[in-house]
């Protein structure tokens, strides 16, 4: 049997770290086993629909390189892949459950439900649920006479279909990460399966679609564990038990104080979403890893090892290496703590690992976003090679590479002034004159001229290098100063030095 997994997001907002890790583990598992990765959009809760969220999800997957084999965009043999477009398929399953005594029609109005919560609330049970204790007291097909139910249905009285949870059963399954997990069905409420608007709820739709789409393995966040007993019973009641996928509930990603939240990101200054997301309702921006300057390879690598390892000390993996090594059984069942410094380390390592050609587009873009035009291909390649080891995130290239293309706007002269004197001024005045006459402009000619003049004036070269660096790049950073001079060329070197000297 070929492996088929799915990622089934509800388009309600941006994709946070936990969501992307869920996609990733599904994807890695599918690809490790030569199977298919399905993306299904779970949009049956129309009240939570957020415009742009679906497109955002696709863009994130594309950026991460986790392309679905089947989806509303990629198509596939089990479509449609958007649940709202499958609406008509679900009612038959809900009706079948009613016919077989596993579900029932409930006609309670909003007011009646509110009244129930008021009437039955106690100190121990402040928000009573619609469960086996309560259902006998409500207006549903278990309490009303058959002809009354029939009349209500025939007159199109708004109603929902609820699952009838057994009072005393225990249901269990074997989670691929956690092992045996069991639940007492009497503690779970009679969840709505089909809503008054004819839309299924998540519970019915997820089971029906995992069945119809022949899903073999379903990995989702541990927040869905409490729903598992409802789903287990639906698989059984619908007669599909033998096709039930194997499940794994993925542990939470933890922030500095418990579950990692959007607020942690804002508070501690790190991104928690894959890409920038602006909530259209409140116009609030949540920062993304992409915009912070992470490479997708680093982002994916960091997420993969957040709660998983292959049993060795290895930390750096390409997507292909992850596919080869991934084993869902090696995902830890305890929450994994997110560490932003470690995330940056992954990016730094990936900048070292990636070749110049594959970095060129991103570096050119980040420079362009900062007003620096780097259209000389050969020059850009040379510079990336020279400075990439000094960069952690992509925007670091603005500082580390920008001065090659554009004279610095500010000069950190305060770093030079305390030790500045007439002797040094004289040195640079003469050095500029020497440089103007250099015929073969390269690192070694610039350096030789520098050292010879310094020796003639008995000044230690070390005393002169910092001022020269500040003159050329603006601050205390960058590769070897003579190499910088070679690359920016004679005219620019002379111009920058003359200008800086005029300020000292
Ligand atoms: N639609 C659910 C979500 O938004 C999917 C849960 C599942 O994978 O079963 O997370």
Would you give an account of this structure?
- The chain has 504 residues and is mainly alpha-helical.
- The protein has four domains: 1-71 and 251-353, HUPs (Rossmann fold, 3-Layer(aba) Sandwich), CATH 3.40.50; 87-194, Glutamyl-tRNA Synthetase, domain 3 (Alpha-Beta Complex); 360-403, no CATH class; 407-504, Arc Repressor Mutant, subunit A (Orthogonal Bundle).
- Helix content is 44%, strand content 11%.
- The chain is built from 19 helices and 14 strands.
- The chain has helices at 17-32, 53-64, 87-99, 110-120, 146-154, 202-212, 228-237, 262-268, 289-292, 296-304, 319-325, 340-353, 356-368, 377-387, 396-405, 422-437, 443-456, 461-473, 481-503, and strands at 4-7, 36-39, 103-106, 160-163, 170-175, 179-184, 192-194, 217-221, 246-250, 253-255, 258-259, 277-279, 284-286, 336-337.
- The strands form six sheets. The chain has a three-stranded antiparallel beta sheet.
- A hairpin with a 3-residue loop joins strand 5 (170-175) and strand 6.
- The radius of gyration is 32 Å and the shape is elongated.
- It starts with a strand and ends with a helix.
- The mean pLDDT is 96.
- Bound molecules: glutamic acid (GLU).
- Glutamic acid binds next to helix 6.
- The site of glutamic acid has 8 residues, from helix 6.
Set out the fold topology.
Blueprint: E1 4-7, H1 17-32, E2 36-39, H2 53-64, H3 87-99, E3 103-106, H4 110-120, H5 146-154, E4 160-163, E5 170-175, E6 179-184, E7 192-194, H6 202-212, E8 217-221, H7 228-237, E9 246-250, E10 253-255, E11 258-259, H8 262-268, E12 277-279, E13 284-286, H9 289-292, H10 296-304, H11 319-325, E14 336-337, H12 340-353, H13 356-368, H14 377-387, H15 396-405, H16 422-437, H17 443-456, H18 461-473, H19 481-503
Helix pairs in contact: 1-11, 6-7, 10-12, 13-14, 16-17, 16-19, 17-19, 18-19
